[in-house]
Amino acid sequence: MVESDAVRQLRNLSQLFFEATERFAGKRAALRFKAAGAWQDLPYGDLERQVRHAALGLWELGIQPGDHVAILSQNRPEWAVADFACLTARCADVPVYPTLPTTQVKFILEDSAARAVFVENREQYEKVAAERESLPHLEHVILVEDRIEGPGVVPFEELLRLGAKAEGKYPDYRRDALAVNGDELATLIYTSGTTGPPKGVMLTHDNFCSNVHGALQVLSIGPDDVCLSLLPLSHSFERMAGHYTMFHAGVTINYAESIDQVAANLVEVRPTVVLSVPRLFEKIYARVLENAVAGGALKRRIFFWARRNAEAWADLKLAKHRIPPPLALRKSAADRLVFAKLVARTGGRMRFFVSGGAPLSPEIAKFFFAAGLPILEGYGLTETSPVISVNTLEHLKIGTVGRCIPGVEARIGDDGEILVRGPNVMKGYYNRPEATAQAIDADGWFHTGDIGFFDDDGFLTITDRKKDIIVTAGGKNIAPQPIENMVKTNPFVLNAVMIGDKRRFPAMLVVPDLDALRAWGEERRLDTSDASKFLQLPDVVAKVEREVMGNLRDLASYEMPKKIVLIERDFTIEAGELTPTLKVKRRVIEEKYRSEIDALYEP
């Protein structure tokens, strides 16, 4: 753990950067990335030099302190260089999700009045080039890969050369960078926009520094740790926890090649800490269940025996009770027979995962804990820099998002909404004073839009988004997310969305796991060749209904979905159904499948 005094003295993110490059200069690598099939190291000294040259290069291009510079790229060392260069050049950067379509990229560049943008490759460049004429503020496009001729295009290497040549002109670069006021804008992060257009969240140096400080007081990480960075750095969670906090603590950051390569990268990198969203854990759990179910009767019995005993062990362990010797022996056997394989697939030395961004199913959390892979679920929003609360290894309560980190206050409003106050709360929404006033009240409480409660030990539980609560025509309130999470633990289900607001009863859109369902269908000699026709077969619909309802047997009758609709394809970012952080856009889904939904409620 980084000493709290060192964290407390942070005045700004420039200080965080310079101190880390000095304290950990003897370590093998600050960052690691894969190129030409092999992992490459970027030492702290090389990183500091690239950041310095990039910052001076921005000044040479005419970028001034206070200007906005966008970053449109996947996670890679150049992303970190661009970010720290902007910070030390006293600019505010504007991260843009590389998965966004051209229209949304244009909106962010235009709304933020970015004067320059770092772009990763030709694909991202073309998004900018397509709208260049309608972006009068944009003067420079700094291209990391590829070689493209175009107005204002500057290769990344040329930016570094410009800065290197100009070092003599800026003898006070470091002093000026360290003089940044904590209240100065560090970044504009645009919200995912599950409803309405995205808003630019103004986060300051103080916002991030306070959150780094709070996180490191409760999470023990340090120079001996290795992390795999797989969430987009455009996401506030990865930015604060996986970028600034890891860097400040001296953790070696390895950039995953892509989401598709995470499984392979886990084995190669062998990380000790990984930050993720629940979707990763849901997929791992579903694959483990699928393999167990498809592995024959003996393998299936062994798996469920192991899971049952491991979860009994977990219940006692979490309650800090003594483990009876017979159960300890059964748990040891379960580890050897089942869980050792899962541990090996994560690299074999994982200390813990941290999960955020969406609710995590308690069933999945307990399964991973039983496997010796604890998931520390936390909670936060972009507007809170982002962490509000988190479980820890010492204080872990599955089904909650932990206790508030030091420096953060939270309380429950009269309507059940979670309200937050502290140095981590944003400065406001960029150029949107009315929206800011609606979000932060006169007493400084930020209204999260989430519904939840604290237990007697101070652990926070989130029940749902305030605007997502389903109110049936009969006046019953239903929180959809916990129900959806129950369904998604089933091996025959990939995704699920609860519907029923202002309707007579709740229903559910279900995306089945076609591979698992086809295997079941082939055993029964059903025709599985055409997915659309296969999913319409009465036997198949009945099978999925049984699986869904079986997972929900403990619900109150009014919460139970009365009907389901099978959706052939999973929801995607590209189709506009998911945010870049993989949250379902409920309104989009409901509109897209309106005819199918309406048919459910026909007399």
Strand order of the largest sheet: 2-1-11-10-12-13-14-15-16
User: Termini distance?
Assistant: 62 Å
Beta-strand residue fraction: 15-25%
Q: Could you name the ranges where pLDDT drops below 50 across 5 or more consecutive residues?
A: 1-8
Strand count, sense and barrel status of the largest sheet are: 9 strands, mixed
The chain-level mean pLDDT equals 93
Explain this structure to me?
The protein is globular and about 75 Å long. The strands form six sheets. A nine-stranded mixed beta sheet has the order 2-1-11-10-12-13-14-15-16, sandwiched between helices. The chain has a five-stranded parallel beta sheet with strand order 4-3-5-6-7, sandwiched between helices. Strands 17-18-20-21 form a four-stranded antiparallel beta sheet. A hairpin with a 5-residue loop joins strand 20 and strand 21 (460-465). The protein has 603 residues and is α/β, with parallel strands linked by helices. Helix content is 41%, strand content 19%. The longest helix is centred in the middle third of the chain and has 22 residues, at 297-318. It has 22 helices and 26 strands. Mean pLDDT is 93; it is low at 1-8.
